[in-house]
Amino acid sequence: MADEKPKKKASGPSLADLKGDLPSEVVHDGVPFPWMVSERAVKALKDYDVRDDDIWVTTYPKAGTHWAVEIVNLVLADGHEENIDRTKQAKPMEFDFTQPGAKPPDHLPPDMRIPTYEQVKDWPSPRVFMTHLPEHMMPKQICEGKGKIVFVLRNPKDLAVSMWHFLLPNKFNPKHEQWNTFLEQYCTDEMVCGSYFTYNLNFWNKHRLDENFLFLKYEDMKRDLRTAVVQVADFLGRSLSDEAVDRVVDKATLDSMKQRFNTVESKSGKIGAPSIIRKGIVGDWKTQFTVAQNEAFNKLYREKMEGSGLHMDFE
Ligand code: A3P
Fold it and tell me: Check: CATH 3.40.50.620 for 15-154+195-278?
């Protein structure tokens, strides 16, 4: 059985299958991205016309983006999950699967045949977006105070493990095949979206006091989901009854989301990517980091975070 080909996922072709002749990674404004982030998207987003009530969930990938998007959607739906319009759930704003050079889009699900930033143009307000764009590439209007940004931070060790599991099957970079080469790259700005530290500290240093930014931490959300939900509701100017908050919390748990997301994924024919919801815990890094890797990473963490006033929980 050694030469048996790996079974193709029932969900369709992988991202690697779709990229055609494009390189697996591309660099825009000095930052590496996976191939489906196009130059035209990056340019369009810099001058994007942001609405006052747009909600941009902004994260370094694997920080809990989909969790925060779901909480926002549930808050807007007063906790009635069945009222969320799943056709208005965009992929990251910078994704553009149909750029010149990619495989023809005829076998893509409809939501991937048009660049995300184009798809959402006429959506009704309030629009809910996700993005992994670094601070210097965000729409200028956001940095000037327009729109509402829910920014999620997660401790860099759990995030590294989550990202490694996610990137491995997508074959963006040979360094991702082994945990140790992945971790080496993860500590540098050669990582997709730039390094964890550069990405998060740029937002934190520049925007932590801005009224249009809400900073959440994954570990706080795990510890006390209810408080996080109330924070999001307050930030969005929605006053929810206690019962509505209960409904949001109930539907935003790991188990509830796991059930729902698998259904949504198969219904929309989402391709290739391993399920967004994996273990969903704090402290998973202990199963992956060696003692030496942990010590080296702690040293780097102290150097990078010193003076930032930002503290992350690792367990
Ligand atoms: P793990 O891979 O550690 O399990 P993103 O949405 O940014 O891609 O982040 C995905 C990570 O968030 C995954 O982490 C996933 O399991 C976790 N996650 C998603 N929904 C969650 C929830 N309701 N509760 C806790 N973690 C959640």
Answer: no
